[in-house]
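Example record

One chain of 245 residues, shown exactly as stored in the release files.
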Amino acid sequence: MTHTRNPNGPALQDAISLVRAPLFGVAGISLITNLLMLTGPMFMMLVYDKVLASKSLPTLIALCCLALLLYACYGVFEVMRTKLLARIGTTFDHRLAPRLFDATLRLPLYFGQHARKHDPLADLANIRNFLMGSAPVALFDLPWMPIYFAFLYFVHPTLALTALAGAIILVCISGLKHYCMRLPMAAANQSNNTTHALLIDVKRNGEAAAAMNMGDDLCRRWGKGYVETISLSRELLTRPACSAP
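Predicted C-alpha cells for this chain:
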C-alpha cells in the first residue's frame, strides 16, 4: 500500500514551528500577568493587617505607590501580550496564505462544482482571528485558576468554596446555553455558507450571468439569503438561550 505525501505538510509544520517560540513567550507573559493580578488582594490584606493595626500613614502611601507601580507593569505586559498574539496571527497567516491561494485555484480541478463549498483562505482567516483574539489569552490564563482557588482557601476556606460554586454555576450556564443554541447556530451558519457560495458563483460566472440577463434574479436570490442570515444572526443575539427553536 502506497502513501501519498502531503505537499502542504512541510509548509504547515514550518508555520507552526515559526510561531511556537512566540507562543512560549505569551505563556511567560501570562505567568507574569497572572501573578500581578494578585496585587489587589495582597494590597487589601496588607492594609487590613498592617496599616489599620499601626495606623501608619507612610506605610499606606508606600503600599499605594507599590500597588500603582505593579498595576502599571500589568498594563504594560497586557499590551505586550496582545501585540505578540497579533504578530503570531499575522505571521501564521503570511506563511500559509500563498500556499492556500494556490490550493484555492486548484480546487476546481479536484472537486469540480463542489469546490465552491471549500474556502481555504477563509479557514485561514478564522485561524488568524482566533490567534489574534481573546481565546488564546483565556487558554493561557486557565491553568492559573487552581492557584487562585488555593490563594482564596489560604485567606479563608469559605471564600474558596464560594468562588468554586460560582465557577461551577457559570460553567453549567455556559454549557446549557451552548446546548440550547446549537440548532439556531447551525441554521445561521448554513444560511451564511449558502449565501457565500452563491456570491462566489456570481463572481466566477459574472460575464455569463450578465450575458443571459440573470443579474436581477441572482440579486434577489442573494438578497433573500443575506436577509435570512442577518435575521438568524440577530435572533441568536436577542432570543432567550433556552427558548424553543
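Notes: Confidence is low (pLDDT under 50) at residues 1-5.
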